Structures are given as structure tokens and as C-alpha cells.
Recover the amino acids of this structure.
């Protein structure tokens, strides 16, 4: 059980979060840009200080007197930009964390990148780098895995594969996973629970049932408009929608059950 | 027969100065690259001063402040029985100050260019600050580190005005190669001046070429700055 009750003044918002996360839970944190998602993740990791309490099982990670540095927290952290050590090969990246060669081999094999073990990060594709980054985060045998928009820079096909891998690791290592994401598909597919942040506050909490019972939403972008028809790319699929207000480049939210337009430029209008 | 003593002295001086500046320069440049303090511009100005000041100005002030009659020089003389003018230790102190920006500036820009996430990734891997410095930060600014070391070394070999003013030209003690060339020319011994100058020219060229060559290869190999 993770208990979080923290607050922090940021330049434009006051972050104030009170949250209980169960052991083995997969929690998705979503919300618009600047809502404090990444900061919350960094506070849990110990990369940023805040006021308040973080307690993991019976161990206090921080309170008003005590602060456990990131080195001592049992976490794995995956950055959006992978943050692999450029001066180390794939295998060295893993062994730097923990010199357990068997675990490194196992993780690389599970990630299907053992063949890349001697390659340097700059020779890898984005998807390969993120597989290494996840494997590296698990080398510490963490109880909690934190991921900051890990797949947002990857294309849909690679994203789907990595979502499956992440879920496999989550189950195999009995992890408590907290992932910041904008992707509805990641939330529906992976999360047990989801919180949405707005201006530093939790504005909604949904469990899996509530998530899947609601109207499912997906994001898309208008790639072309012909007469009154907008052609919208959703992942690597395309949808046509009759709507005269849409312009090329608009980001929209769709309901796939009806494929009726639900919103334009992130704001739901109907 | 060429007397190599001035060269040996130059190299000894450059080696000691580079070593001292590495020890001081790494934490100082790291501080400068990370600080958001208001005094950063002031510190950067002081650090860069030796680049723009005429060496004679710096040499003059050092002569004034390091002399045993001065406050600072007096304390050092009383405590350690070391005279900091017209002596080798004086040359070391003067050169450390004079070459300071050549160590700090490349290191600072190297530190500033490093992806901060990899430093945090190291902390999140359970590693402390020292291990992160030696295993992650410094290896990833290798070109900047190499540039800082070599330029500091070469600049110390090449300095003239400051060492002449603070150290004078005592053979075997403070007469470094650049000063020896000046002495030869003054004595109209152009032959020796030619030989010394040619040696310094070749060494300087080779040193710089090796740095640029290695940096070129490193950047290609690891895609680092």
C-alpha cells in the first residue's frame, strides 16, 4: 500500500494530491499539460521535494522531518526520452544498476532485445531504447515502477507491442505500476485505476469497471478535409466524419462506438 | 647541444597546474552549470577575466599580492616558508589563476549540454553523486573534458607575460621555454630561439590535432558532446 498526501507550490499551480495505491495496482495518471502529472511522479521518485507524507507499506519515504533520497527508494523509473547512458552498451546500462548478469540476461530476453546487448544507445530505434529503459528500471528489482509518458514518442505498432511487454512485466514481477499517460488506449488496456489531474488537483478517479463502462474515447488528428468531410487519423487507422467546422491539423476526441465527433482540440463540445 | 631544462620546467609546470585545475575546476564548473544564484554572472566574469586581461596586468597584481611583504604572501611565507614570487611555487599559483578559464569554460559547457535525465537515471539506479560523476557525467562529456585538460596544459606551456613578471627568468627554477626564447632573442641568439620556437610550434600543433582528432572520433562513436 502506498499512501501519498503531498503538496507543492509550482510556478503556475498548487499541486495537492491525496492518494492511496494498492500493492500490485496499475495506476494511470492523466490530465492536460501542466496539470502536475510529471511533478507528482518525480515527487514519488524523490527527484523533487514537497511538503507532506509518502508512506510505502510501513516505511516512511518522506514526512515533515525525513526525506528518503531517490537512491534509497525501491523504484524503477522510465523517462519519456529513455535517458539511457550513452557511454554504455545495452548490457552495461543494465549492469550499472545491478551487477546481476542472470537478471540482465533474463530481462533482455523477455524484452526480446538480447541480440542488441552490445549495441550503444545511439544506434537503437526509439522502441528498442524504451525496451532497454524498462529492462534497466527493473534491474533494481523495484516494488514500484514509475513511467513518465513512456510510449508517447513511439509509433502505434511499436506502442502496442511495448504496452503488452509492460503488462507482462507488471504481472511477472508483481509490480505496483504508476504511469503518466495521455493515451486512452493505454489507460483502457493497462490501468486498474485512473486519476485525472487538473491544475494540480485530482478531478476524477475511476476504476477499471468505471473506465470501461463509460463511453470509450480515442484521440485522433484531422489529416485532410474534403467538402464537409474530415478525414481523421486514429493511430494507423482512418475515419471519415461529416463536420464542417473541422480544419486540417485539429486534434479531436472520438467515440469509437459511434464514431460521432465528441470534441475538437481536446475540448469536448458535445 | 640543446639545453632541455626550460622545456622540462614548462612541462612540469603545465602538469602540476593542469592537475590542480582539474581538482578545482570540476566541482567549480559543475556548480556554475547548475546554480541559479544571482551571483553566477559575477562568478563567470571573474572566471573569464584572465582571458581578456593583459598578462602584464595580471602579473603585476600577482606580484603585488604574492610578495612576502604583502598580506597574503606574508602569511604563506610565515606559515610554509614559501616565497611566491620569483620561485617555482609562485609560477604554479600564477599559472593556476591565469589558466583557470581554460579549464572551467569547456567543462561548464560540457556539463550544461548533458541530458539531466541521465544524471537522475543514475540516482534512480541507486548510485550516489560521486559514482554518478565518475561513471556517467564525466564519461559523457569526454570531449569537453579532454579539451579542458589539453587546452589548459597547452596554454600553461604557452604563457609568457605572467610567468615572466611573477617568476622572472631564473635558469632551472623559473625560466620556462617561452621565457627562454625571449632571452635568446634578447641576446641575439636567433639559432637557439629558432630551435626552441620550432619545438614549441610542433608540440602545440600535435597536441591540438590529437585533441580534435580524438574528439571527432568520440562524438561519432557515442553521439556525445
Amino acid at each position: 500500500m502506498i499512501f501519498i498526501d503531498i503538496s507543492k507550490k509550482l510556478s503556475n499551480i498548487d499541486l495537492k494530491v491525496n492518494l492511496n495505491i494498492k500493492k500490485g495496482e496499475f495506476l494511470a495518471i492523466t490530465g492536460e499539460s501542466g496539470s502536475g502529472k510529471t511533478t507528482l511522479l518525480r515527487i514519488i521518485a524523490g527527484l523533487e521535494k514537497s511538503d507532506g507524507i509518502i508512506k510505502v507499506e510501513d516505511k516512511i519515504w518522506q514526512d515533515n522531518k525525513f526525506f528518503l533520497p531517490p537512491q534509497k527508494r525501491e523504484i524503477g523509473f522510465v523517462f519519456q526520452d529513455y535517458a539511457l547512458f550513452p557511454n554504455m552498451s545495452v548490457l552495461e546500462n543494465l549492469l550499472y544498476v545491478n551487477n546481476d548478469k542472470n537478471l540482465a540476461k533474463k530481462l533482455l530476453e523477455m524484452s526480446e532485445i538480447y541480440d542488441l546487448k552490445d549495441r550503444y544507445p545511439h544506434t537503437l530505434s526509439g522502441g528498442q531504447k524504451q525496451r532497454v529503459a524498462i529492462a534497466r528500471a527493473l534491474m533494481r528489482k523495484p516494488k514500484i515502477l514509475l513511467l513518465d509518458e513512456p510510449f508517447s514518442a513511439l509509433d502505434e505498432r511499436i506502442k502496442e507491442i511495448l504496452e503488452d511487454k509492460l503488462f507482462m512485466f507488471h504481472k511477472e514481477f508483481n509490480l505496483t505500476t504508476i504511469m503518466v499517460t495521455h493515451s486512452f488506449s493505454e489507460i483502457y488496456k493497462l490501468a486498474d485505476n485512473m486519476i485525472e489531474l487538473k491544475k494540480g488537483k485530482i478531478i476524477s478517479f475511476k476504476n477499471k469497471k468505471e473506465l470501461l463502462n463509460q463511453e470509450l474515447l480515442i484521440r485522433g488528428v484531422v489529416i485532410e478535409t474534403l467538402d464537409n468531410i474530415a478525414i481523421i487519423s486514429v493511430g494507423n487507422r482512418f475515419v471519415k466524419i461529416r463536420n464542417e467546422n473541422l480544419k486540417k491539423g485539429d486534434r479531436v476526441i472520438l467515440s469509437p462506438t459511434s464514431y460521432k465527433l465528441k470534441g475538437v482540440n481536446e475540448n469536448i463540445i458535445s | 647541444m640543446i639545453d632541455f631544462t626550460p622545456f622540462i620546467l614548462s612541462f612540469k609546470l603545465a602538469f602540476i597546474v593542469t592537475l590542480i585545475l582539474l581538482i578545482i575546476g570540476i566541482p567549480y564548473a559543475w556548480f556554475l552549470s547548475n546554480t541559479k544564484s544571482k551571483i553566477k554572472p559575477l562568478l563567470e566574469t571573474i572566471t573569464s577575466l584572465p582571458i581578456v586581461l593583459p598578462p602584464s596586468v595580471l602579473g603585476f597584481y600577482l606580484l603585488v599580492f604574492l610578495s612576502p611583504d604583502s598580506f597574503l604572501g606574508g602569511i604563506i611565507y610565515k606559515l610554509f616558508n614559501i616565497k611566491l614570487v620569483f620561485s617555482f611555487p609562485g609560477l604554479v599559483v600564477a599559472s593556476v589563476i591565469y589558466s583557470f578559464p581554460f579549464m572551467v569554460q569547456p567543462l561548464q559547457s560540457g556539463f550544461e549540454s548533458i541530458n539531466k535525465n541521465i544524471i537522475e537515471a543514475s540516482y534512480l539506479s541507486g548510485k550516489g553523486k560521486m559514482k554518478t560523476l565518475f561513471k556517467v557525467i564525466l564519461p559523457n562529456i569526454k570531449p569537453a573534458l579532454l579539451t579542458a585538460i589539453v587546452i589548459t596544459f597547452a596554454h600553461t606551456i604557452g604563457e609568457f607575460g605572467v610567468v615572466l613578471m611573477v617568476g622572472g627568468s631564473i635558469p632551472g627554477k623559473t625560466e620556462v621555454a617561452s621565457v627562454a626564447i625571449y632571452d635568446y632573442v634578447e641576446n641575439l641568439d636567433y639559432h637557439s630561439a629558432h630551435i626552441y620556437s620550432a619545438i614549441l610550434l610542433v608540440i602545440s600543433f600535435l597536441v591540438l590535432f590529437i585533441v580534435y582528432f580524438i574528439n571527432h572520433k568520440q562524438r561519432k562513436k557515442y553521439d556525445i558532446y
